[in-house]
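Section 3.1: Structural characterization of target chains.
Under the original work plan, the team committed to producing a structural model for every single-chain target entering the pipeline before any wet-lab resources were allocated. The record below documents one such target. The sequence was received from the expression subgroup and is listed exactly as submitted; it comprises 338 residues.
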Amino acid sequence: MAKLFTPCRLGDAELKNRIVMSPMCTYSCLAEDGVVTDWHIIHYGARAVGQAGMIIVEATAVDPRGRISKNDLGLWSDGQVEGMAKLAETIKSQGCVAAIQLNHAGRKAGLDEAGLAPSAIAFSDKYPLPRAMTEEEIHQAAAAFGEAARRAREAGFQAVEIHAAHGYLINQFLSPLTNRREDSYGGSPENRYRFLAEVIDAVKAVWTGPLMVRISAEEYHPQGNHPEDYLYAVERMRDQGVDLLDCSSGAVVPVDINPFPGYQIPYAEFFRHKTGIATGAVGLITSPLQAEEIVANQRADLVLLGRELLRNPNWPLYAARELGAELEIPYQYRRAWQ
């Protein structure tokens, strides 16, 4: 049987296959309230019907000041739980694991006010100059992740991902390009990791299910982090009880890169074999044979599809047919697959 369609245990959750919908912002909330809309139910429900093993709901703000845009989903308020519960139940109703990504955008917040950051360095001239956070604000931000995880638990989500990639707040602390602090949160790799350590502790204080972290394993800058520089952080995450490392790259500072199919897979393979942590591979994965090669050769445990699942919500069904695997087809669709 194709490895792609074998079950995968992640903490106390079992994925029916190794195909995961990667978190992708849809900017679809109304009235800047961060509440789930009908669009979210239809959008994620369609991919669950299409038989993905797990869906990671898009970057969800833990604080209104940490939104990527004014139309981001949020879990900074108890009033947002009801809609999230409906969304989680929709996903789970199709035998799909419901996960959610928690995020604080930091200096990349798309709001009218200046963002918060470890250091007062703007991402580009298109963003306002952020304000360097006080230690009290750092503690408050870590606590906000914990409160959002509590609400995710109350909403019925089965897994949580902490967004520590793509130049958002946690990534800003991890990177020497964006963290110029001279206190206990800056300087050495150990100090730069301190904020993420506090976020993980805050989440795990209220969350017992599977925990994932997304990182930018390569920053594409000579003075930035590269995979070898992340080994300390990844080993700490593993020791803190993180179940899976979601391996992305870039977006810490503006740089030009040349993406190609599978260009980020070596990062997932590197950390999996160096540290023993389970990994997810992401980045221009489009074909079933490509996805099968990744998991069959133990380069990663899961494959995360983004734009390919936007183009084709039923990609897992087509992949199963191409790879000769058996996959339960919703009975409403079976006559189309006979």
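The mean pLDDT is 97.
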